[in-house]
Design goal:
Shape: globular
Structural class: alpha/beta
Helix content: 25-40%
Distance between the termini: 56 Å
Number of helices: 27
Radius of gyration: 25 Å
CATH architecture of the largest domain: 3-Layer(aba) Sandwich
Number of strands: 30
CATH class of the largest domain: Alpha Beta
CATH topology of the largest domain: Dimethylsulfoxide Reductase, domain 2
């Protein structure tokens, strides 16, 4: 019995924490943070430490399965399964066309580099647009904003050069969000940033772990982000704190923005959002007047709430009017290692509004966001008969039943499919509804890279790393690499996969390493040299600097296009009732805000013994003053009722939650007819309708700031 310690990095989230792994007889026996790791310096979270339990969980699927007529599942050879799946796809393509076939890419696929884009390439090869992913129910408002406002080609100012950062609806010390803050050991990086003088502004309905580090903290009602962003802009423009030179050169319509935010005085916003007017002015001054470098950035909070596109647009306008972008000659923080470098010029890439000329969904007529169709209409695409109805679907690395809004409709839609294939390590709720379940290797059983997709946004320095497989799959298992089903189905359907710009050989399957080498083809070093760096490498020998603007550059930011102006007027005209909120003609006293916790990543981790001990279900966190006023007590079961449905919750008293708000973690629950709260928790997606309350352009559902009423469980 021999033990060996190996090095790798976690890929549960985009933090890519370096770890030391103890291996005994080809099995993981221990995972710990690696203090020699140059990026994460020994940090890893509870989810990462539980990797041993995750790899050897009793509910892990270890061989391909096919659903039987009685609903049970039986093992099936993978090639036989793929023959049957391909035959059904071919039949549907002949009778209903390629648009009858769809795919969903979840977080489990997104964080596996060989599989990040392969499902999308598969659909392109067969001629289907029905590609859905987490992007359109997460932070797609950022994509919409770039399409309406425009974008600065030189990128934003790097965090380590900033005087101030404003974080709206994000808690990066728990969510490990590299887009919002430095995710490389976030607690340590926060302390270092504060020590060098970085000022922090946090806007959140909860006094989060991140908010405890704030110089200015605003605690609004959930869903009032547009009001607050407009008010901050009102103050900045009223006081003349904007970057006048930058605005004169690069903003097309500053006067229109000024007029649109005129009604959103600090006093109005304070009354409506439930914050102090003086704090709004203080935040605006710290961001725009007392600091010269920095940026405003959001997480999922504003982007999952009502009017998410408006909130994100106004937030980015804060960066625009203050000119918080790199200028000519300044060094780009992370120009990229694995992806081809973009040209960085000190000029505006004007608004393109590409969804207006793209392929349109047959439900609602929504255009494409990048390559995605809106997930908000996915269930209807399956349920509504007619040309283009989705009848076959592959879900890759996602538990759709627990992650997609409107759980009842989503479950009904999945059950209606003629073919449902799940690629996932576990027999989760979605897998139980599938016709075929294909189990892939887990993270330490496969080679991989640090994330290449959006690497320039998620990591502050040009760092990349390779890891080999650390252990083989469990003895006797018949696991299938995530990418292989898409390659094998493409071969059977007679089409060629174009993989990151490289047409694949469709006779002989590639190896995972060969696919990773294609991804890393833009790396400054040869593949074998790149692989040899055990702890990865920071490629700071290849800096990139912002180039001058083109002499004839005419692009300008459009801060107030007509559809934003109309929505601003709608918000300003809404009746203000801070202590209650209307929804679908009903009045509600509370707003439910979804939250992240360290123990789980969406639905990942809920099946593990130690996680369940710490978090047996998703608690209903409420302010103790609200409990007293309602005659409720910690530990009591309550009903949480929206205008669509009712779920259960057990109260946990939490003074960090503001009054009038209930805070719960998403990703819990199971199939609607099987859920037992004390065993499974409740699915917050039950409360959300996708028949209405969808944002324009991206069909973004209302996934937080959900109007609800609270009562003792009867």
């Amino acid at each position: 019995m021999t033990q060996e310690v190996k090095r790798s990095f976690c890929r549960i989230c985009s933090g890519n924490c370096g770890v030391k792994i103890t291996v005994e007889n080809d099995r993981l026996v221990d995972v710990r943070g690696d203090h020699d790791d140059p990026m994460t310096l020994g940090y890893t979270c509870i989810k990462g430490i539980q990797a041993v339990a995750a790899h050897y969980a009793p509910d892990r699927v270890l061989q391909p399965l096919k659903r039987q007529p009685d609903g049970s599942f039986a093992p099936i050879d993978i090639e036989v399964a793929l023959d049957e799946i391909a035959a059904k796809l071919k039949e549907l393509m002949q009778t209903d066309g390629p648009e009858s076939i769809g795919v969903y890419r979840g977080g489990g696929a997104f964080l596996n580099n060989t599989s990040t884009n392969i499902s999308q390439r598969f659909l392109e090869a067969i001629g289907s647009h029905k590609f859905f992913s987490t992007i359109t129910i997460d932070q797609s408002a950022k994509v919409v904003t770039a399409g309406r406002l425009g974008a600065w080609q030189g990128s934003r100012q790097p965090l380590d050069t900033c005087d101030v950062v404003m974080m709206v609806g994000s808690n990066p010390l728990v969510s490990i969000s590299g887009y919002v803050f430095d995710a490389r050991n976030p607690n340590k990086r926060m302390k270092e940033a504060r020590a060098r003088g970085l000022k922090i502004i946090v806007i959140d309905p909860r006094h989060t772990e991140t908010a405890k580090n704030a110089d200015v903290f605003l605690q609004p009602y959930p869903g009032e982000d547009p009001t607050l962003m407009a008010s901050l802009l009102h103050v900045i423009l009223r006081e003349g704190w904007e970057d006048k030179e930058f605005c004169q050169q690069w903003v097309a319509d500053l006067d229109e923005l000024r007029a649109a935010v005129a009604p959103f005085t600090p006093e109005y916003a304070a009354h409506r959002a439930g914050v102090d007017a003086e704090l709004i002015v203080k935040a605006a001054s710290l961001f725009a007047n007392e600091s010269k470098r920095g940026f405003a950035v959001s997480g999922t909070g504003p982007d999952m709430a009502p009017r998410s596109n408006l909130a994100e647009h106004l937030l980015e306008c804060l960066n625009v009017v203050c000119g918080r972008y790199l200028r000519e000659g300044e060094q780009v923080g992370n120009p990229g290692v694995l992806q081809a470098r973009e040209v960085r010029k000190a000029q505006v890439y004007p608004a393109q509004r590409w969804w207006e000329s793209s392929y349109k969904s047959r439900i609602g007529g929504y255009g494409m966001l990048l390559a995605d169709m809106p997930t908000g209409v996915m269930a209807e695409e399956m349920l509504q008969p007619g040309p283009g109805q989705v009848k076959a679907f592959i879900t890759h690395g996602s538990n759709l039943v627990n992650s997609i809004p409107d759980q009842l409709k989503t479950t009904k839609a999945l059950r209606s499919l003629e073919l449902l294939v799940t690629i996932d390590p576990y027999m989760n709720e979605t897998a139980k509804l599938s016709h075929y379940v294909i189990p892939p290797p887990m993270l330490y059983e496969r080679p991989d890279l640090t994330g290449f997709y959006a690497e320039t946004m998620l990591c502050p320095v040009p760092f990349a790393r390779y890891t080999p497989a650390i252990v083989p799959p469990p003895e006797g298992s018949k696991l299938v690499e995530d990418w292989y089903p898409f390659w094998a189905l493409a071969k059977r359907l007679g089409v060629t996969l174009n993989y990151e710009g490289v047409p694949l050989d469709m006779e002989t399957p590639p190896t995972t390493d060969e696919l990773l080498a294609i991804i890393a083809s833009h790396c400054p070093e040869p593949w074998e040299t790149f692989k040899s760096h055990e702890l990865g490498k920071v490629y700071d020998d290849y800096p990139q600097f912002v180039e001058p603007a083109d002499p004839d550059a005419t692009g300008r930011f459009t801060t107030m296009p007509s559809d934003i102006e109309a929505e601003m007027a709608e918000v300003a005209a809404e009746p203000v009732s801070p202590d209650s909120v209307l929804s679908n003609g009903e009045e509600f006293a509370f707003r439910l805000s979804v939250r992240r916790i360290r123990e789980t990543f969406n639905s990942i981790g809920r099946n593990l013994k130690e996680i369940r001990k710490r978090m047996p279900y998703n608690y209903a966190y409420m302010n103790p003053e609200d409990l007293t006023a309602m005659g409720l007590a910690e530990g009591e079961k309550i009903s949480i009722t929206s205008d669509l449905a009712r779920i259960e919750g057990i109260i946990e008293s939490d003074p960090t939650v503001r009054r009038g708000v209930i805070s719960m973690t998403h990703g819990f629950g199971t199939l609607p007819e099987e859920t037992v709260y004390e065993r499974d928790g409740s699915s917050t997606s039950m409360l959300i309708s996708t028949d209405r309350d969808l944002d324009p352009i991206n069909a973004m559902p209302r996934m937080t700031a959900i109007p609800v009423n609270i009562a003792r469980w009867a």
